[in-house]
Amino acid sequence: MEKFEPVIVAFCCHYCAYTAADMAGSQRLPYPANVKIIRVPCSGKVDALHIIKAFEKGADGVYVAGCLEGDCHFKNGNERAARRIAYVKNYLEEIGIESERLEMVMISAGMGQRFAQTATEITEKIRALGPSPIRTATAL
């Protein structure tokens, strides 16, 4: 049996998380290639529909990465995102998907090491959970 390699979608805010991902790359810090980064203007702009669509399109795990608490470039976008993530986690549980497949992380622009570490940890956690039930249901 082949080793399961999950597909992870990371919605990263332009100012902090995406810059941290760029820093991780420029410092040549390794993180899994199966993390697909989508740059967004602010983590607060990631709608519940975007998250659900990512799962429908084959993601095994999703995380939204925003600015540190109290340091959002759009005032409180990261706080809105955190509330939205909590809401979608409840929704996922209701429809039979592990809420652990969705995470909210807060990273500053200078935290390239933390970005790489977070990407690795989330990938390992999703690998342990196995393929998304949505992914396996659509494959039938």
How would you portray this structure in words?
- The chain has 140 residues and is of the alpha/beta class.
- The protein has a single domain, classed as Lumazine/riboflavin synthase (Rossmann fold), CATH 3.40.50.
- The protein contains five helices and four strands, in the order βαβαβαβαα.
- It has helices at residues 17-26, 48-56, 77-94, 112-129, 133-139; strands at 8-13, 35-40, 61-66, 102-106.
- It has a four-stranded parallel beta sheet with strand order 2-1-3-4, sandwiched between helices.
- α1 crosses α4 (112-129).
- The protein is globular, with a radius of gyration of 14 Å.
- The protein starts with 7 loop residues before the first strand and ends with a helix.
- The model has no long low-confidence stretch (mean pLDDT 93).
The largest sheet, given as strand count, sense and whether it forms a barrel, is: 4 strands, parallel
How many independent structural domains? 1
CATH C-level class: Alpha Beta
* pLDDT < 50 runs, ≥5 residues: none
- Shape category: globular
User: What is the overall pLDDT average?
Assistant: 93
- Report the β-strand fraction as a percent range: 15-25%
The tally of helices reads 5
What is the CATH third-level topology name?
Rossmann fold
The level of helicity is 40-55%
What CATH architecture do you see? Answer: 3-Layer(aba) Sandwich
Radius of gyration: 14 Å
Strand order of the largest sheet: 2-1-3-4
Task: Please provide a brief summary of the model.
By secondary structure, the chain is of the alpha/beta class. It has one domain: Lumazine/riboflavin synthase (Rossmann fold, 3-Layer(aba) Sandwich).
